[in-house]
Every structure is written in structure tokens, then in C-alpha cells.
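User: I'm preparing a small set of examples for a lab meeting where we compare how different chains pack in three dimensions. I only have the primary sequence for this one, and I'd like the structure in C-alpha cell form so I can line it up with the others. Please keep the answer compact; I'll paste it straight into my notes.
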Amino acid sequence: MFQLKRLAALSLALGLTACATAPAQAPIASASAPAAGPKVLVSAANPLAVEAGVNVLRQGGSAIDAAVAVQAVLGLVEPQSSGLGGGAFLTYYDAKTKKVIAYNGRETAPAGATPDMFLDASGKPLSYPEAVTSGKATGVPGAVAMLSMAQAQHGKLAWKDLFADAERLADQGFIVSPRLAGMIAGPFPQTATPDAKAYFTKPGGERHQAGDLLKNPAYADTVRKIAAQGPKAILEGPLAQAIVAKVSEDPRPGTVTLADLKSYRPKVGDAICGPYRVYVVCVPNAPSSGAALLEALGILSHTDIADRGPNDPQAWFLFTQASRLMYADRDRYFGDPAFTPVPIEGLLDPAYTAERAKLIGEVAGPAPAPGKPRGAGKLAPDATLEPGGTSHFVVIDAAGNAVSMTTTVESIFGTGRMVGGFFLNNQLTDFSWSPKNADGVQAANAVAPGKRPRSSMAPTIVLDRQGKFVAALGSPGGNSILAYNLKALVAVLDWKMPMQEAFNLPNLIARGDNFASEPARYAPGVVEALAAKGVVFRGSGGEGSGLHGVMMTPNGLEGGADERREGVVKGF
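Assistant: Understood. Below is the C-alpha cell output for the 572-residue chain.
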């Protein structure tokens, strides 16, 4: 219903509904705007990864080619967030066809997975440290296979030529950044594993610190194999055997087999696209939570938030209430659609979002219950724990093609178990730890063999109504990803802010009865006015944002990189 290739007449009807709440506005800029600025841009969470992407673009590579290089370097220099042993979602804009395609490289549960795998002998959920470092936590990795599929379809350079920077940095060493050093020294269960200790400890017994040179010859060997063999280098052969052996180790060994690895297949299909004002916003299909982001925009389209701005307390109040409604629905209904139907059409129906918007009162009341969208089944409340440990990057190439990719090993350093110089993911802890409620009703995100866990990742691409590129953005942040992305979209599309200024705005996560934010970033009086409406901040929301994005302006491309991390924007 909301897929781009079928938007047609329905898009017109929905668009009129969405635009009725705001005066007509021109897009930020059309893709045919004067190109006074850079013609290509890369925005990612580490300068070394950005440079790798730019190097590929200088060689005439496509956005997808550059994305392969960026991921290969991120897995080395930012292993706390993503890597070769993790998964990803990638949203791709084809400038020639004006089509948006979504790639699903989410990990899968092995054939031996069971719904109660994260429960102890008494039927209670395991403690987080027990679960996250266990072999049970690792799913079949999908990021490399997904990138291979996308590059075969949209690449210009040879696959084997995309790993030079990653190989060189792993062999010769890279400088440990302050953020990585902080993670190495942090109180995370993964940093206490034997593999993490061995990798991050210097010969004298001290942990690596910021400014140290860190070499990873095993990683260099792995990327050489991937360059030569593609994803088979990880999913078959000696590395696959090493993954199975590592997952099978105590404590709490997992069940990933060689057959599980060999049978992994990424998915590709049309993005889920919906209208917002005069724009079309596109995200991956479930088990990504991108459609929940579209629902929140749909709810906000029935408010006057666009007539307000970042200094207006009522704008932030509307934001909190739309967020709470979005999360209530997302938490109840989203999972792997191959196993449990996700009522996306019902959730994005303008009549439904209008009904949800009517629940926004003058003050913040109790946590809203999930709604009853058309097509929704009876599902148990969710019990998913989703910690941070993710990265996002954006690439625009000379032809105007765009990549928006969110990538992860799940928690900090995944399970803390290493193979071939990279960490294995703990992605299966993204399933609901309690698969059923007391009445035996199953949760949408319960564990099942071959199933892909629900994800908050929502790499986003925005077009105008003619299908021309407007913007691409996304963020890491665990459950907070949707709030971070929503803030950026409202700031860029409604408040007409430059990308960097949009990212610099305070993050505000409103989920259930919890409100978390960054009080020092608001204009004077906003925090107090929100408190008077029942929005009282407690904490900052866990893992900080890592927003990265690019937008088209009248002067050409303009990028942003979240100042809360170490990212940069670079192009030519």
C-alpha cells in the first residue's frame, strides 16, 4: 500500500490528507538545484571510515561501493557499534529510476532457537550480563551478505577493490579514538570476556587508551578473504567453522550451525514510503521499525507542530505525545512479518493516525495503550530489551544515488566473543525475553527458528512528490532511534533547519511513562513549561544519538554529523 512503486493514486489521497494540516511549503530543494556545493558526500561516525568512503567515490565508485568501504572500516575502528559479525538495514535511492529500495541484512535465529532460550530454569528472564555474553545471543550475521547483494546490483567498481583502507588500517594499525577508549574502559560485561581482554590489553597489562596504535592482523586477513570470496568467506569455510565453535563455547552455548550460516539470505524489496506534508518519507519494511516512524509523522500531520519551532514548548509537547503513541503501537505490533503479520497499512491509514492524534490532550496523561489498527491481531505485551551499540552513515554519489544505512552488533562489542578479528553480535537478545503472557498469547517479537528480531533501526530517505532526492538520515541509539530520527525529520522538514542544526537540537525520548532528554540544550523556559504539562525529564535516554545525514539545498549537498559522537562529513 505504501510502497513507492504503488504510491500512485493512493499517495495523492493520503498526501492531500497529510498536507491539509499545514500551509503549502516548497521542498528544501530539488535535485536539479545549482550544484555550488559538493557533488558527493559521506557522513559517518568515524573520520577514518568517512575517508575510506570518499576514496572509493574519488575512484568513480557508487554510493553502494562506498558503503562497503565505510562498513569495513567502521567494523575495525568502531567495533563497539557495528561490524562484519553483525547486521544492518540499508535504504537506497536510485536517482535514475527515482525508486527507493530497502535491503534487509538483519540476523536470523538459528534452527535450534527456542522461545524460552533467554529464560532460566525457573522460567524467569536471565540477567542482562548473562544473556548478552552467552553463545545463545548470537544470530547468523547478515551485514556482509546484504552489502554484497546491494553492490552486485548497484556497484560500479569491483567488489575486491573496496577493502583496501580496511586492510591497511588493520595491518598497520589505527589510532584508538576517545570514544573507543571509553568503551574499552567502560563497565560493560563484554569488556570482561577473554577475547575482549586479549584484544584490548597492551603487552604491559594495561588497556589501550585514546591515542594508542591498535593493530588487528586477524581483521586484515578476514577482509582479504571477504574481498576475494564475498560473504562466503564468513558464512562458509574456516571462518564459519570458527564462528560455530565460538558460539558453542560456555557459558550458555548457542546453537548456530554451519547449515544456519550457509543458508542465510539477505532480503530486498520496495521501501515503505508514506507522505508527510509535501514530501515522501521512505524506510525499510519490518522487522525494522521504520513504519512506526511514518506513523508518528502521520500523527504529527494532524497537529500544528510545523507552525511552531524548537523554542516553543508546545512543539516539544506535541512531539512527546506523538512519540508515546508511536512507541505503544510499535512495541505491541512489530516483529518479523514472515512470522507474525505487522498491520502496517492499518497503522499508516490517515483515519487511524487522526484517531491517535485526538488522544493528545493539554497535559501528559498516563502511558497510552496500543491502538487497534486495521489488520492487528491479538498479541501479548512486549518484553524486549534493546541496548545501544549501533552506527549510522549516509553516502551520496556523483550520480545522485543515496545510501542510508544503520548497522549494528547490538550491544557494546556484541557478545564480547571474537572470530577473525571481529566481534560476534548479540542480536538474538533483541527478541522478547518473555515469549508469552500469562494467558499463553504470544508476543509479536517472540523467538523462533529462522526469525529476524525486531529492530528500532530505521534508515530514512526523503523525496519530494516528483521523486527527487531531498534528504537521507538515521541514527543509532537502541529504542531511542525512532525518537532521534523523528526529531531530525521534524526539524528539517517542518522547521526548515539545516541538517547540522537539526541534529544539535535536544534529544527527547518519550516512551510510556518515561521522558528522557538533555535539558541544557533547550531554549530558556522550555523545560519548565514542559514540566508544567507533566513532561518531567529523568535521565538522558541511555545511549546517545549518532545522527548522520545529508540534504539537498539550493547550494547543493549539505551534511550533518552528530556532535555527540566522533563523526564528520566530507565530500568533493
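A couple of notes for your slides: The radius of gyration is 22 Å. The chain has one domain: 1-567.

User: Perfect, thanks.
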